């Protein structure tokens, strides 16, 4: 009887370890996705809800993105960077 338990215990432990590893990886990727979504939402809120970036928003929404290519307005680019 004891030999049967020993024979099945090791594969059972390996199976539990593999399942735990898969579960941990799945939880990590799910949490990573959630954190990326939260970061993107915070970035969206900061850019669209604040008055700090109003001038940049107007230019981007109007399709006038030449300011980023020409780099004429250093203050505007600095605000966009922030």
Number of E strands: 0
* Computed structural class: mainly alpha
Classify the oligomer.
Answer: single chain
Q: Please state roughly what percent of the residues sit in beta strands, choosing from under 5%, 5-15%, 15-25%, 25-35%, 35-45% or over 45%.
A: under 5%
Report helical residue fraction: over 70%
Distance between the termini: 70 Å
State the major sheet: none
Radius of gyration: 27 Å
What is the 3D form?
rod-shaped
| Low-confidence residue ranges | none
Number of domains: 2
Report the order of strands and helices: HHHH
- Count of helical stretches: 4
Explained architecture:
The chain has 82 residues and is mainly α. Helix content is 84%, strand content 0%. The protein contains 4 helices and no strands. The longest helix is centred in the first third of the chain and has 48 residues, at 2-49.
List the topology elements.
Elements lengths: L1 H48 L4 H8 L4 H5 L3 H8 L1
Summarize this structure as a short list of keywords or feature phrases.
82 residues, mainly alpha, 2 domains, 4 helices, 0% strand, rod-shaped
